[in-house]
Amino acid sequence: MLKMCPLDDAWMFSDIVTSLEMIDHNVQMMSAVSGEPMLRRVKQETDPPPQYSTEPPAPHAQPLHPRPMPMMQPPEVSTKRTAEVKQERACLQPLQARQIYAMLPPKVPLSPQQLELETKDVKFCVSPEDGSIVGNTSPEQQHCSSTTAAAASGARDDDAPRRLCLVCGDVASGFHYGVASCEACKAFFKRTIQGNIEYTCPASNECEINKRRRKACQACRFRKCLRTGMLREGVRLDRVRGGRQKYRRAPDQALHQPRPQLDDIKVLEALSSYEPDLYTCSPPPSGVTDPTAKTLTMLADLYDKELVGVIGWAKQIPGFTDLQLNDQMRLLQSTWAEMLSLMLAYRSMSGGGGGALRLRFATDLSLDEQQAKDIGAHDLYLQVCGVARRLERAAALREECYLLKALALANSEARLDEHAALRRFRDHILAALNDAVSALRPYNANAALQQLLLVLPALRLADVAVRRFWSGVHRDRRAPMNKLFVEMLEASLR
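Now predict its structure.
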């Protein structure tokens, strides 16, 4: 009888069936050739004597459950298959640490540059799509990344300079409506926009706003909020509360860059020194009893005084007296109405409100829309109010208006003898305006300059309205006019 050998556990059932079929086929072929059953001859030649174990069974050993043993193939086939299975198992088993170490190449000492690179901190970032960590980080670094980032952020917070509110100079609590501001100015700006509140400055729209005096003048405080760059569009009109900004902004590069100083702008220094003060109207002659005639007489006398003042002011602008005398006169004759309308609009600004304006001609003379209609100056009123709205939209400052006034003088379209000299004079004024805006508004200088330059087209419309109004007054002899005023008015009609 053929000896039964235990099968290897790695054999699968399909392999056993295939092996049995091959054995059966081989036995039949061998028997047919030799005429003797093959299994009997194989048994006689290959079977070793039976072996019996003398060791006692292990204590508490689990009982062996007999399992059916399939018919084995011949020893040569079994031995070959067993070797193949062992080889397959060896390929599937993972390499041991000692084997891996033996396969590694010999270690090469690192250069000083490589050592420096290896000792540097590992930098990584978080992917904005899925929040995964991107970069050369190990799992331990990924696990500790949040703690490390928080510690680094805390260190930067301690070292970073404290931001100040751009409106009042108090400590800023964050970026509100586009600029760094404190909670008080943020709440003030929000209340003003949501309530559509209109303020009026009791003085001359030039009140100082700081931490102690920020409540003194609401009109000037609101104008300064707009001037620093606070956005009306950022306020929710439906009073729905929004979330605060959670991420710290990078320090503004403009803080570390040199900016122009107002004291260094010679043109602005000259313009500020010689700007005429606000005039007071002279009383009309005693023989004038009609209210409209009284108003027109006071206005004509006021315009004559302002013309004298603007001529003396223009001569103080650096570069103006370098022009030929005829060119100086042509520039003044073609732009006097623009310059006077600009300063009238600046004095008449409402401080950010959207209500009707009163044109403030003098300390004791101002006209609303109805009073302007009564004297026939409704178009003049509308055009000057348009300039004032432009100035409010640009949140124009006094220094900027002085330079805009000089730019209106240099932007004349009059026929001159030396256009190249006028071009140099205009470029000089433009450069001074650019420097002044950069010094006054470091955070939004470009946008502010664009808004200021948009005032010039509105000034041209106001110029036409002023000349048309006073030409009608002079033609109809509705009020007496001084000689200088008449000459400047008639010069534009030639």
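The chain has a mean pLDDT of 73.
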